[in-house]
Amino acid sequence: VHADEQKSGWTRLQPLGTARDMPRPKPPRHRRRPPKLPVYRGAWGPVQAERLLWRAGFGPRRGDRERFAKLGLEGSVRALTHPPAERLRGPKPTVDGAPIAPGDAWGHDVLWWLDRMVRSNQPLTERLTLVFHDWFATSISGASARHLLAQNRTLRANCMGSFQTLTERITRDPAMLMWLNGTDNSKDSPNENYARELQELFTLGAGNGYTERDVRELARALTGWRNDWSDNTGAVNFRYDGSRHDGGTKTVYGRRGRYTWQDAVRLAIEHRSHPAFFVGKLWGYFIPTAPSRADVTALSSLYVRSGHKIRPVVEAILRHPAMHRGPRMVKPPIVYVAGLLRGAGKGVDTDAWAWATELAGQRPFAPPNVAGWDAGRWIDTATWRGRWICANHALEGRTLDPDPDKTKYPTTAAQSPAGAVDAALKLWGSPTVTAATRRELERFAKRCDQAADAEWKQGSYSILRHNALAMLIATSPDLHTC
Amino acid sequence: MTRDPSCEDCSRAQLFRAAAGRGLPPIEPGMPAPAGTGLTRRSLLWRAAGAALSVYGAGRLLPMSEALAQGPGPAGGRVLVQVYLEGGIDSVNLLAPTEDPTYRKLRPTLALPPGTGTPFGEDQRLRWHPSAEALAQLHGEGKLCVMPAVGYAHPDQSHFVSRHFYEVGALDANQRVGWIGRYLDRVGNPDNPLQGLSLDGSLAPALATARVPVASIDSPSGYGFWARDVWGDVESLMLEASAEIGAAHLGADAALRQAATGAVQAGRLRGQLAPFAPTESGDGPEKLPFTIPVAYPAGDGLDSFPAKLAGVAAMLAAGLPLHCISITAPGGYDTHSDQREVFDGDLKLTCDSLLAFQRDLEARGLADRVLVHVWSEFGRRAEDNGSGTDHGAAGLGLVLGARATGRMIGEFPGLDQLDPDGNLRATSDFRAVYASLLEQWLGHDAAAVLPDARSMPRPALVR
Q1: Backbone dihedral region of B194: left (phi > 0), alpha (psi from -120 to 50 degrees) or beta?
Q2: Which of A390, B281, B362, B398 lies 20 to 30 angstroms, CA to CA, from B129?
Q3: Minimal Cα distance from A359: which residue of B?
Q4: What would the pLDDT profile of A364-411 be if each residue is shown by its tens digit?
Q5: Can you say how many angstroms the Cα of residue A127 is from the centroid of all Cα atoms in its chain?
Q6: HEC states along A266-301?
Q7: Do A196 and B157 touch (CB under 8 A)?
Q8: What would the mean pLDDT of B249-269 be, rounded to a whole number?
Q9: Chain-chain contact of B215 with A8 (C-beta, under 8 angstroms)
Q10: A328 closest CA partner among A480, A110, A134, A113
C-alpha cells in the first residue's frame, strides 16, 4: 500500500446509480466455494413481468406483459439475455414526415437511439447500451455526433460480452479519444484526463486502491494515440503512432513494466478493487437497495470466473429477490419517454424529443459530465416539468378533439369516473397503478363531472377530462417509477 | 438548446381563451405595484390573468399574493447567490504572476506575456487576465474579496470527489445533504420552494435539503404547464389533481416519494412564478415580462447566464421570497486542452455578466441584500501540458457584493513552493469561507451546519 493511498483514506464516492455503503468483499480468489446467489421464488405474473420489463428494458409493448408472465422468471431472464436476431418493429422514425438523418441533422442522433429503444426486439441489449453510455459517459459537447453514433454501436456490440474487451474498445474509441484528450496524450506532453477517469469512474472507483502517481504512470502507458484534422469533417484518421508512445518503464500499482495502452486496461481490470466495483455499479442500475456483502462476493466471484463477462452478472442480478421484492426505482427520463411511446404504440415522429429529453434531465449523447447522470436525483421541479412536456409530446395525435361535433365520446353523465379512468389508462397500454393514484384519478373525474354544470358542457368536458386524465396518469408517481 | 415556441404560444392562447369569457381579472389586493418591481403594467395585468387562473387551479397551494406576503424570510431578506465555475478553473492564469520567470518556465504554451492585464491591487506580483477585466473593476471598487488559493489539506484531484466536498461543506464522501441544504433545513419554510433555487435546469447538490422544499428551473421565465387539448375548468382541476396525486404518495417508498415531491413542489412553484412567464412572442423573439435597468452582455436566449442573472434581480425586485440561489457559469473550465478559447470567450461572458448583475442590483436599490460567492472544485496544475492544464489543487474563490469587505483572503502562495504533485498550496480553506458566509451574511451559527466549523478561522468577508 502506497503512502499516499493511506493519505486518501479510501475516500470514495459511491458510483452513481449505486446504493450507498456497499461492503468491500474479500478477493474472491481466496475462497474455494463462492457463496450461492439467491434467486427469486415468489409469485410470477403480469405485475412482476411489468417491473422486469421496465428495469431490464423500456417497459412493455402490447402483449409483452402477458407473454413474459407465461415465460416465468427463468424464461423471462433468458429471453432478455439471449434475444432473437435484431428486428425493429413498427413505423420508422420521421420528422415532418421525412426520414431522419442521424449524424447530420441537429438532434437526430437522439431520435435515432430513442427509436431503437422504442422499436427494438432486444430491450435488454438496448438498455445495457444505455447503462454503458452512462458508465463511459461521452458527450456531444466534446465529440462529434458521427463518432458518438459509432461509439454507440461499439457499446451495443459489446454490452453482454467481456468487460475488458469493452473497455479496450472504448479506450481506443474516437469519441472517447476526443472527449478525454486521449489523442492529446503523448510522451512529450502527457495528459492525465483519460488515465484518471479510467480508474476513478470506469474500473475502480475514486481513490479505491490507486494513487496520484498511478494516474500519472498510467497516463504514460496510454500515450501513442493521434488523429488528424480535416476542415470539412473535423477530427479524422484516429490511429496508434508508436513514435508518440512513451516506451519507458512505468510503475503502476507497485508493479513495473514497459506498459502499453492494452496493459493499462488489463492492469485496471485485474486490480483487486475492480470486481466489487464492477458488480456494485452494475447492480445499482437495476436495483435501488445495496447488495449484501455476500451478494457482492458471490457476484464478484461469478464475474471473475466467467472471464470478466457482463452477461452472467446481469442474469444473476435480474434473478435476485431484491430485484422483484424490493422498493421501486425512479425510471431514468429516457426510459420513461421510450416506455410511454411503447405503451401508447407510437413511433418517433418529431424532433421535439431532442430538447424535451434534455428538459427531463437525460438527453442521450449529452450526459452532464464524464461521471454520467446522477441517478440519485432524477426528479426535481425542473425535470418534473420536463417529464410533463415529454408526456404532452407522447400524446400528440392521441388526444381527442374537444369539439363534441367532431368526437363521439360518452358524456360525463353517461360515463362513470372509473370508466373514464380505464379509458385513459388504455391509452398508455393499461399500466398498473396504485390504489392511491386510482382513487385520486376517479376523484378528479368526478369533479369534472360536477363542473359540467350545464348541458352544453357535458359533451366537451368529457373529452377534456379524457385528455387531462391521460396527462395525469402519465405524470403520476406510479408511471415515473417501476 | 432550442425552445419550442408553440408550447408557450399555445399555453398563453389557452389562458387567454379561458380568461376571455370573464374578462381580465383586476389586480388583486396584495399584488405588487408595478413601480419598483421591474414588471411593466401591461405584463403585470397580463400575467395577473395567468396568476389568477393558477391560484384558482392551485387550490390549497400557495398563491402569488401569499408568497409575497410571507415577509422577508430568514436573515432579514438577505440573499446568497452561488456561481459555480464547472471543471476547476485555472486560477494561475486568471490572476497571473506574469512577471515571474518560473511562471513562464512552467507555462511555455499558456503564459500571459509580461505586462498583460490590470495589476491586482493587493499583490503586485499578480495581474488579472484580460477576460476578467470586470473583476478588476469590481476589486478596484472594493466590492470583491479574492481568495487566490482556496482549498483544503490533502486535496483530491478528482472532479467529482472535490466538487462533492465543496457541495456538502465537508470532506465527507457519504454526506448526501448539501451545506446550503442543511442551513435551509434549519431556517427554511415548509411551503416555499423558492428559498433554495437552482437555475441550471436541475437541482444543485449544495442546495439539496433533507426536509424543506427547494426548486430548480431553467430560467425565471419558463415555468408554465400546458396540456394538449385541455383547458378551462378542466385544466384548472387537472393541475390541482396533479399536486394531489403527488400528495397521496408522500408517505410511500423513496422512489415514489421523489416523484410525488416533484409533483407537489411543481404545483407550488407554478403559482409563484406565474408572473414571470415571457410575453408576446408572436413572430419575434420571446420577451421578458420585466424591464432590466442596465445592459447585460448578449447571451443566447432566455436561459443564458446573463438572462438568468437579470431574472434573479427582477424576481428580487418583485419581492419573491428567494434566499439561496445557485447558478452554473457558462463554459467548461476543465481545460485539459485549448484553454485559451475558454478563457477568451466563456470567462469574459461570466465576468461581464457578474458586473452587470452588480450594476443591476445597485440600480434597483438591492445591492445591500445580495452577496455572490464564486467557486470551483479545484485549480489547475502549475505546469501546462502543451495545450491546456491538468487537474490541480488550490484554486480561485471570490465573494462579490456591495457589502463584501473587498479584501484578499489568504495570499498567493507563489509558484516556487508547489506541493509534491506540482500544484498550488492552499492558503485559505473553503470551509472557513462557508463559516464566514453563514455567520457574517446569513446570521447563523456555522457550527450547526459545518462539522469542521470549530477548527476553522473566520475570514472577514462581510462589512
Answers
A1: alpha
A2: B362
A3: B201
A4: 999 988 999 999 889 999 999 999 999 999 999 999 999 888 988 988
A5: 6
A6: HHHHHCCCHHHHHHHHHHHHHCCCCCCHHHHHHHHH
A7: yes
A8: 94
A9: no
A10: A480
